[in-house]
Every structure is written in C-alpha cells, then in structure tokens.
C-alpha cells in the first residue's frame, strides 16, 4: 500500500476535535472512509472540514489540536 501525505488546503488553525470536550475525529492508526471528516481548519470563525478523499489508515498526524497551519503544510500520512 502506498503512503500519501495529506496537506492543508488553506492556512488557519487545525482542529482535531469537533469541540474542546469531544474526542478527536481520528487518531494515528485509525481507518477512514471516503468523505469522513479528519479535522477542521478555522479561519476567522469560518470552519472548513478536512475530509478523506480516499479510504485508508492514518499512519501519523504531523499537527496537534489547535496548531496553526499554512497552506501546503503536511497534516497527516494516509496509507491507501
């Protein structure tokens, strides 16, 4: 299986959780389905969902909850 690095499409703040008191959408080792939410990027109170474009297993995240990200910065590796 090939490992693909998924990058941030826009700059902002990356959220791995839907809310501070909720569990993370996904963690290292979790499987994802096409269209499943992996995280959110917030820019000026506007939230853009980061969804899986293909099914696979998350190998590792490069960013933590509430980390600032730039467009093109690696978010996570996906083994598809």
TrEMBL record:
Q: Which residues form the Lipoyl-binding domain?
A: 3-79
A Pfam entry, by short name: Biotin_lipoyl
Q: Which GO terms describe its cellular component?
A: acetyl-CoA carboxylase complex
Statement: the UniProt record of this protein carries the keyword RNA-binding: no
The yes or no answer to whether the keyword Iron is present is no
Question: Could you tell me the Gene Ontology terms of the biological process aspect for this record?
Answer: fatty acid biosynthetic process
**What keywords are annotated for this sequence in UniProt?**
Biotin, Fatty acid biosynthesis, Fatty acid metabolism, Lipid biosynthesis, Lipid metabolism
The entry lists its GO molecular-function terms as: acetyl-CoA carboxylase activity
Q: Which domain of life is it from?
A: Bacteria
As for what it does, the entry says: This protein is a component of the acetyl coenzyme A carboxylase complex; first, biotin carboxylase catalyzes the carboxylation of the carrier protein and then the transcarboxylase transfers the carboxyl group to form malonyl-CoA.
Protein name, please? Answer: Biotin carboxyl carrier protein of acetyl-CoA carboxylase
């Amino acid at each position: 299986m090939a490992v693909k690095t998924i990058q941030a499409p826009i700059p902002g703040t990356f959220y791995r959780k839907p809310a501070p008191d909720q569990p993370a959408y996904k963690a290292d080792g979790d499987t994802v389905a096409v269209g499943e939410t992996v995280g959110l990027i917030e820019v000026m109170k506007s939230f853009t969902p980061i969804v899986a474009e293909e099914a696979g297993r998350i190998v590792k995240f490069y960013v933590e909850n509430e980390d600032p990200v730039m467009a093109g910065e690696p978010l996570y590796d996906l083994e598809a």
